[in-house]
Amino acid sequence: MRYILTALILPPAMNFILLLIALILWRNNRKLAMVFGSVSLLTLLALSIPAVKCFLFKGLEPYPALDAASLQQPGRNPGAIVVLGGGIYVQQPEYGASVPSDLTNRRLLYAVYLHEQTGLPLLLSGGAPGAAERSEAEAMAEILRRFAIEPGWVESNSRNTWENALFSVEYLQRSGIDQVLLVSDAWHLPRAVYSFEQQGMDVIPAPTGFESRCGCSLYYWIPGSWSFFLSSFAIREYLGLLAYHWGQAEP
C-alpha cells in the first residue's frame, strides 16, 4: 500500500489525477477546472526540461566527488567500503536469473574502483524484491566473484535504505569497524548517510552518478522523456528525506 500511495502522488500519476479532477469540475466550475488542468500540464512540461531536472537534483547532491588523497587526512581511517544496491532486474531471460539494475551496477563499478585504490574490503547491501529469486547483494557478489574479488560481507535482508544501514552496521561493528566509505548515487547519499549515522557509524560519502550538472546550451531547455523520469526520481527522493527526518518509513 505504501508503494501504491507513493506512486499516486508522484508524476505522472499526479498529473493524471489533476486532469481527472479538472474533468469532473468542468461542468460546474470551469475556472477551477482550468486551474487544475493548467497545473497538471505545466508541471508535466516543467519536469520534462533538463534544466529543471538539474535544479531538482542540486538540492540532493551536497557531497562532492571523493578525493582519494583526502583519505590520508587525520581522522580518516575507513575500515570498509559499503555499496548499497539500487534495484534488481527480475528473471532476465538472457541470464536465466535476476541481475543487478543499471543503478546497482554503477554503484558496484565505483566501489570496485575504490577497492582497487584502497584495498578495503567490500560490504554489499540489498535485499530481494518479492519476485526475485535472490537478493541485490547476492547478485552483486556473483559479479565480483567473476572478477576474482571476494566480498567481505553480503547483507541480503534489507528492504530499504534504513535497513541497509541497520543490518550493515551489525556486520561492521562485529568486525570492529566504525568508519566506512559509503557508495551510492550522489542524490541518494543524503538519506543513506543520515541512516548510517543514526546507527552510530562514521561515514565518508563516496558519491557516483551525479545528475545535477547542466550546461548552458539550448539542449537543456528542450523537454524530453528521460528528464521527466529523472525529475520524478528526484521528487521521490525528497519525499524519502522528509519521511526519514519525520521518523517514518521510506516511501
Q: Judging from the principal axes of the Cα atoms, what is the shape?
A: elongated
Tell me the total number of β-strands.
7
Low-confidence stretches: none
CATH architecture of the largest domain: 3-Layer(aba) Sandwich
Number of domains: 2
The H/E string reads: HHHHEEEHEHEHEHEH
Spatial order of the strands forming the largest sheet: 5-4-1-6-7
Secondary structure category: alpha/beta
Percentage of residues assigned to helices: 40-55%
Briefly, what CATH class of the largest domain? Alpha Beta
Major sheet attributes: 5 strands, parallel
Task: Give the overall average pLDDT.
Answer: 94
CATH topology of the largest domain: Rossmann fold
Gyration radius (Cα, Å) is 20 Å
Distance between termini? 10 Å
The share of residues in extended strands comes to: 5-15%
CATH superfamily of the largest domain: HUPs
Number of helices, where a helix is a run of at least 4 consecutive DSSP H or I residues: 9
